[in-house]
Amino acid sequence: MSATRYRRFLKLCEEWPRDETKKGRDLGTFLRHKVASAFREGENTQISDPEKCDQMYESLARINGNAYRQRFPRVRDTSFTGVTAEECKVLLSGSMQQTDEEKKGLWKTLMDRFSSKTPEDVPEKAPEK
Fold it and tell me: Is 4 exposed, middle or buried (0-12, 13-18, 19+ CB in 10 A)?
């Protein structure tokens, strides 16, 4: 029976999308590593709690199949900030390169982006000595 579970998890890993923009923090990659460590012996792995294993698989399969997105559709494709899903994806991808003269933290970047002030309203900093 563990061979069947192993094959189901492998199929799920194949279907789970990878986000190449999130190197080292991609859920698909994390899932693949967890399955590989849980089934070290492949189909011959003895599972201590088969019910928990099946429950975990079913939960991941529902997430991968967008069951909750279909069950609870969103009215708009924006968040409370008004940012679209595509803009959030760009922010989280890490592809936004900061210039050397303007290195700031994530919080400052987000505050500047969502602030209602225009750049003309903000006083310039005095040059540092």
Answer: exposed
